[in-house]
Design brief:
The protein is α+β, with helices and mostly antiparallel strands and 358 residues long. It has helices at residues 3-14, 23-33, 91-94, 142-146, 174-193, 212-221, 264-276, 294-297, 325-341; strands at residues 39-42, 48-52, 58-64, 69-75, 81-86, 98-103, 106-112, 134-136, 154-157, 162-163, 168-171, 198-204, 225-233, 255-258, 282-285, 306-313, 321-324. The protein has two domains: 3-67 and 172-344, Zn peptidases (Aminopeptidase, 3-Layer(aba) Sandwich), CATH 3.40.630.10; 69-157, Peptidase M42, domain 2 (Elongation Factor Tu (Ef-tu), domain 3, Beta Barrel). Helices cover 27% and strands 25% of the residues. β6 and β7 form a beta hairpin.
């Protein structure tokens, strides 16, 4: 990954973008894709679509631009901030974290309090519910706190991007700014190679709270095929339960999902392109649902051929999510190759033709 592309990734990761408050992150994405897109547009809720025009079918590559976090539910008389979740925030890793309250007047620093181990009941080590946790911003009382924050302000964990051994990095919010990065980079690479199809890169909003942005975009855009890039669980760590392993590993390439909403012709197309271009991919089974935007796209309109392409991720929904950059680069590469050849593939399942009773 060259320096400019790495800088784009870091800008995405360092820009707070909790569900419902994605504007700043979407602006970073739009600024990047504008340099190689024919058009870039947004809708009323901030979903962003960048397009390279062609004469063939319309295909889309998407990621969701929002991240999990917290929201200020109330402010106590003593000046502490009571919390609710934004998305699937993990109560077992939230206490003792540095956080940032994203206010209209700028960021306000705080910490999620944790009673010292010396003072806790040794028999009570169960994680405290998020609604019973609190942020301490150092305020003396409610009056001082309300001068700084308001109910409804979003909160993100204060975590930087950390380089690890090899090509691996750790950060908060890899789920799923890496998907929007891959969609943008896939579009750029397709534009460089040339494409007969009209190719769209999409950064959706509010995936973490119910796939809402994809429901909006899928209906409006109505593409002939869509590939949804999101993280998937790398189960090669030491604590994965045996009945939850998938065989997906960091460094093995993106995972092509099979089953459920994943269209078999798209599965074939991506595997064929990856093989022809020597891009490593893995397989994963998703027999019921993907729990990604693919589940919203594939039922939109009369049914949109969709595929979930997963970037392996350890420690999902924690402040220390981990990926291998080689997997991310391979994801963008296979997207670019597919998009430049998208007009060559069929996206209809052959079930024997149409019959009418006489």
């Amino acid at each position: 990954m060259d320096q400019s592309h790495r800088e784009f990734l870091e800008r995405l990761l360092e820009t707070p973008s909790p569900s419902g408050f994605e504007t700043a992150g979407q602006r970073v994405w739009i600024d990047y894709v504008s340099s190689f897109s024919d058009t870039v547009r947004t809708d009323e809720y901030g979903n962003a679509v960048a397009t390279v025009e062609g004469d063939g079918p319309t295909v889309a590559m998407t990621g969701h631009g929002d991240e999990i976090g917290f929201i200020v539910r109330d402010i106590t008389e003593d000046g502490y901030l009571k919390l609710n979740r934004i998305g699937g925030s993990d109560k077992s890793v939230s206490r003792g974290q540095h956080v940032t309250v994203q206010t209209a007047d700028g960021p306000v620093s705080g910490v999620i309090g944790q009673t010292a181990i010396h003072l806790r009941d040794a028999d009570d080590e169960e994680p405290t519910e998020i609604t019973k946790q609190y942020v301490d911003i150092g305020a003396e009382d409610r009056e001082e706190a309300t001068e700084l924050v308001e109910r409804g302000d979003p909160i993100t964990v204060a975590q930087r991007v950390t380089d690890l051994a090899g090509d691996r990095i750790a950060a908060r919010g890899l789920d799923n700014r890496i998907g929007t990065w891959a969609a943008a980079e896939g579009l750029r690479r397709a534009a460089e190679r040339g494409t007969e199809a009209t190719v769209c890169a999409v950064s959706t909003v509010q995936e973490e709270v119910g796939l809402k942005g994809a429901q909006m975009v899928g209906f409006e855009l109505d593409p002939d095929a869509v590939i949804v890039v999101d993280v998937t669980h790398a189960t090669d760590g030491p604590e994965t339960p045996g009945d939850r392993t998938t065989g997906v590993e960091l460094g093995g390439g993106p995972a092509v999902s099979r089953g459920g909403s994943n269209h078999p012709r798209l599965v074939e197309a991506i595997r064929s392109v990856a093989s022809d271009e020597d891009v490593p991919v893995q397989l994963q089974a998703t027999g019921i649902r993907t729990a990604t935007d693919a589940d919203a796209f594939f039922t939109s309109r009369g049914g949109i051929p969709s595929l979930y392409l997963g970037v392996p991720n350890r420690y999902m929904h924690t402040p220390v999510e981990m990926i291998d950059l080689s997997d991310l680069d391979a994801t963008a590469d296979v997207l670019g190759h597919w998009a430049s050849q998208a007009h060559e593939f069929e996206y209809t399942v052959d079930v024997g033709g149409t019959h009418q009773r006489e």
